[in-house]
Amino acid sequence: MLIGSDRLLRRLCCLIVISITGVFGASCSAPQPAAVTDRDQPPSRRLQTHRVSSGETLFSIAWRHGIDYRQLAHHNNISEPFTIYPGQTLRLDVSASGAASAPASATAQAPSRTTAASPPATSSAPPRSENRTASRATSSPPALVSGSPDWHWPAKGRIISAFGASTGLNQGIDIDGELGEPVIAAASGQVVYAGSGLRGYGNLLIIKHNDTYLSAYAHNDRLLKSEGDNVKAGEQVAEMGSSGVNKVKLHFEIRREGRPVDPIRYLPKR
Questions:
Q1: What per-residue string of b and e applies to 125-156 under the rule 16 or more CB within 10 Å gives b?
Q2: 5: helix, coil or strand?
Q3: Residue pLDDT, tens place only, 77-88
Q4: Low-confidence ranges of the chain (pLDDT < 70)
Q5: Which of 135, 207, 215, 246 shows the greatest Cβ crowding within 10 Å of its Cβ?
Q6: CATH code for the domain in which residue 210 is found
Q7: Which residue range(s) make up the domain with 87?
C-alpha cells in the first residue's frame, strides 16, 4: 500500500508541476511590446529655419542645407550683395514655398559676411538684411557663362574616397596629398566663403563660377584667398591640410543649382 501511495503522490506532484509550467509558459508567450528603433525624421520635421551666426554668409548657409543660394535669397527677400546679420532667422522651406530662383545677375557679387549691427526694427514684416558692406573684389568680376565651366583638377593626388551623395556618405571626392601641397581653383570664379564655420569641412573655400555652379575645397591647412577675391582656373587658392579630419587630404565638391554632383563627371580624364 505504501508503494502504491508513493506512486500516486508522485503522479499528483507531476500534474501540479505541469499545470504550473503551462501557466508560466502561456504568460511568457504573450505578445511583447515592439522594440523602439530610431528612424530618420520625416520630411515635415526637417529644419524649417536657420538662425544666422557671426561669420556666416548666405552662400555658406545655402551650402550647409543643400539649397540653391538664389532661391534662399529670393525666399527671404534678400538682394545682392546678400548681406545678413547675426541673429537673423532665414526660412529654409524653399521647395514648400514654390519660390522661383532670383533673377540671375550679369556679374559675380562678393558676399557680405554677417555684421555685429542689430537688424532694423520693423512693425510687421520680417526683418530684411541691409547692404552694409561693399564688394571686396580685388579685380574686375570674372565673366560668367551659362553652361558648365572649363573644369581642372584641384589637386594632383589620387582619389581615396569616391562620390556617394545618394547614400549620404560623401557629397564630393577626397584627394590624397601631402601637407602644404597646392590646392588650385578648379575653374575661374569668385570666392564667396572663406572660413571654418561649417562643421566637418575644416578650413573651407567656396567659389562661385556662375549662377549654376559652385565648388568647395575643404580641410585646408591655410587659405590663400578671402571672400570677394576673383580667381582664375589653375590659380592656387589654398594649401592642403587636415583641418577637421585626422588625415591630410582635399575634400572637393561641385554643386549644381545647390545640389551635389559627382565631380568625376565634370573633371577631365587623367
A1: eebebeeeeebbbeeebbebeeeebebeebbe
A2: helix
A3: 888 888 888 888
A4: 1-46, 95-146, 165-168
A5: 207
A6: 2.70.70.10
A7: 47-97
